Amino acid sequence: MPFIRAGKVVTHYYWQGAEDAPILLMGNSLGTNFHMWDAQVPALAQRFRVLRYDMRGHGLSEAPSGIDAYRIEDLADDALALLDALKVDRFHYCGLSIGGMVGQRLGAKAAARIRSLALCNTAMRMATPQIYRDRADFVRENGLEPIVDTVLQRWFNDGFLKANPAIAIGMRNMVTRNSVAGYAGCCLALAEMDLEADLARIACPTLVLVGGKDQATPPEAGRKIAAAIKGAKLVEIPGAAHISTVEEPAAVTAALMEFFAA
């Protein structure tokens, strides 16, 4: 179970794939951990040395207590600190939701190091930021358990949850076992985020993947990102909601493999 002090936090990470393969760093969404990519890694690890990690305040990574310690800038710095600690220079990046927002920041901040970007189910800014401020306040007061049903309903189509009750329970556990400080802090990061200026600075090959039924980051949010990044490729998975890696794993894997193969 690998842990490393990278920058300001102790980070939980995991390698898969040949040691001499190109590095692919994968970032998780708000409320999940790196297991959200389990279905995609076997295929990706045939091409890459896949490096997954839990963002600060999520999974088994350290959770700073201050709610102001979770800006997108902080999360991007964590990713770079992890790569530095593991002696990785250039890398590909793939992230979903807040992981995709970290990817946008990295694409501008560390352009010389990034080979390509896959930005999945994400946005440059949130359409209704007050929702996330209110959610942060509620979670700090009441914990994660009271919000988990609402979160799952935004993450997945109803039919998927009903047809896959074991996955529903597993995802519920994934949400509730995160740090309250980490979840609330990342909610505030989403509320304050505006990455539009970063998009014009992204020069590497970029895939923008959207779910046609995504409520959290609707398809139009992804389309705006793709339009703002020169040469970006837009792929829509029509039936997918927010956590498309779990709900439509084969379609997400196929889109990622096709992009990275090119």
Helix content: 40-55%
Strand order of the largest sheet: 1-2-4-3-5-6-7-8
Alpha carbon gyration radius: 17 Å
Determine the oligomeric state from the structure.
Answer: single chain
**Superfamily at the CATH H level?**
Alpha/Beta hydrolase fold, catalytic domain
The CATH class turns out to be Alpha Beta
| Helix and strand pattern | EEEHEHEHEHHHHHHEHEHH
N-to-C span: 33 Å
What is the average of the pLDDT values? 97
Beta-sheet strand percentage? Answer: 15-25%
The CATH level-2 architecture is identified as 3-Layer(aba) Sandwich
- Give the low-pLDDT segments: none
What is the fold named in CATH at topology level? Rossmann fold
How would you characterize the largest beta sheet? 8 strands, mixed
Number of beta-strand segments: 8
